[in-house]
Write a structure and sequence with these properties.
The model has no long low-confidence stretch (mean pLDDT 88). This protein has 154 residues and is of the alpha+beta class. The longest helix is centred in the N-terminal third of the chain and has 15 residues. Strand 1 and strand 2 form a beta hairpin. The strands form two sheets. A six-stranded antiparallel β-sheet has the order 1-2-5-6-7-8, covered by helices on one side.
Length: 154
């Protein structure tokens, strides 16, 4: 959650210095404040875990997004063992990626990592109980699961 914290702190410093409109990207943990230009929100792409294309784009203002996934850091040739570990089993979960929109980058980062170890239906149920948070889960098999409010950012 360090990258999320850093994005939030940099955003706070910029805001306190009078820079209302800014986008901070701390290694994929992104905090968007204000607008890209008058009336135009920041656009952020969500990378597809299965290829170089993007899974979608979001409009953000006054929100953060973070993604946790199994597709960049892994520890074996089969890419089954990656940096996310389910503490109950000791193994990496079979997840493509989980992206979360929240009020802070640290919270989005924390939730994206935590939701990665849950089955998609359980992860969606958890997010639905957290007002102001939305998520998109991309499964390794190509299925896309989104919380009800995710579409409002598209």
């Amino acid at each position: 959650i360090a990258k999320g914290y850093i994005a939030d702190r940099v955003s706070a410093v910029l805001t306190s210095a009078g820079v209302k409109n800014h986008l901070v990207n701390a290694g994929g943990d992104i905090m968007a404040s204000g607008h890209k230009s008058p009336g135009v929100p920041w656009r952020v792409a969500v990378q597809s875990p299965t290829g170089p294309a993007y899974a979608g784009e979001l409009s953000l203002s006054g929100k953060a997004i973070a993604t946790s996934g199994s597709y960049e850091i892994y520890y074996d040739a089969s890419r089954r063992h990656h940096h996310l570990i389910n503490p109950a089993s000791g193994f990496s979960p079979a997840v493509g990626s989980v992206s979360v929109v929240a009020g802070t980058a640290m919270e989005a980062d924390t939730l994206a990592t935590a939701l990665s170890i849950l089955p998609p239906t359980d992860a969606l149920k958890l997010v639905q109980g957290l007002p102001g948070r939305e998520c998109c889960i991309l499964s390794p098999g190509g299925y896309i699961y989104t919380s009800p409010g995710w579409a409002s950012f598209a």
